[in-house]
Write a structure and sequence with these properties.
Elements (H helix, E strand, L loop, with lengths): L1 H7 L2 H17 L7 H8 L12 H12 L2 H14 L2 H26 L2 E2 L5 E2 L2 H8 L3 H35 L3 H16 L2 H30 L4 H13 L13 H16 L6 H5 L7 H29 L9 H10 L6 H32 L4 H14 L1
Antiparallel strand pairs: 1-2
Helix pairs in contact: 2-6, 3-14, 4-10, 4-14, 4-16, 5-12, 5-14, 5-15, 6-7, 6-11, 6-12, 6-14, 7-8, 8-9, 8-16, 8-17, 9-16, 9-17, 10-14, 10-16, 14-15, 15-16, 16-17
Amino acid sequence: VTKINGFVWGPVMLILLVGTHVYLTFRTRIIQRKTITAIKLSVTPDSEASGDVSGFGALATALAATIGTGNIVGVATAIGIGGPGAVFWMWFTGLLGMATKYGEATLAVKYRVKAKDGSFIGGPMYALERGLGHKWLGVLFAIFTGIACFGIGNMTQANSIAESMNGTFGIPKIATGIVLMIITGLVILGGVKSISKVCEKLIPLMAGLYIVGCIVICVINGAHIPAAFAAIVKGAFNPAAAGGGFVGATVVACIRAGVSRGLFTNESGLGSAPIVAAAAKTKWPAEQGLVSMTGTFIDTIIICTMTGLSIIVSGAWNGDLNGAALTEAAFASAFPAVAKYVLTGGLVLFAFTTIIGWSYYGERCAEYLFGVKCIMPYRIGYIILVGLG
């Protein structure tokens, strides 16, 4: 598995991924310049547009799937591998990745179809079939996404929640699994409208509280912020000279950590977010493309930056810690008595929203492959696998 992972995340993948980001950035004439317009569009409801959920609802659902353990643990892992400079490469792939996310969502709306029940369905599988005329590619995408939804979006996340609740509060994993199954069922059995309603309320709250916590850490360690930014920029090109006790990273390891963790958190180029973008109420494809690209900005440029800064300014990165333990150490610098509870709460909320967001992705891929008759069996199976995870 390690060898396969090393090959998949080797130079070829990084060049293809970042190369696509760069190409689309120039091909769209630097669409990132429209970020302010995109943010305004995302919070402006349009009752006359056609679709199943609001543009913000689609964005919130996509953010539910993308804002997850990667924003807390993934950033820490990237810094642990590549030093502070990894944050720079997360910015790099995040900013450029906005163009890819714009393209994905625009194509999803352009090639979406209307189902027999009047709902809109779409995503890369429909764009590949109706746009390129290669249904076999659409089928492959649906198969791979269907497999991924049970790993990326379901069992891994459920396991993270159970481990966190057991480690922090001593709650038996089976108890967490049962409760999680019930809550997940209450949300996803209602379909995309139910999922988007929950996400519209939960995402701003959980992201807001987490960002406030990170800001407190940065304020307490305010004197170290200039040095933190200097370490991020300097460490991106010369990790070993970034200062502190961090040594041994190479530029390649730094880039690889930042770019791979960047994709893991914002999913630009993964093809997942366009599936829910296709259900959005919008007047024209590019409108939802703009709204969707704000998801990458929020996820990587805002939330991941706040996590990275908290870890660096607190000095926690100088030790031997990695992953969740590293982020917890950063929070302990500001909230020593409640750090593990705050972090556990964040992990639980972030992981749960990923579960419900990815449930929709897998459902649409299953429907593409097997038709509407598979929807309810899929939902029930998804809920059961949450408990198994």
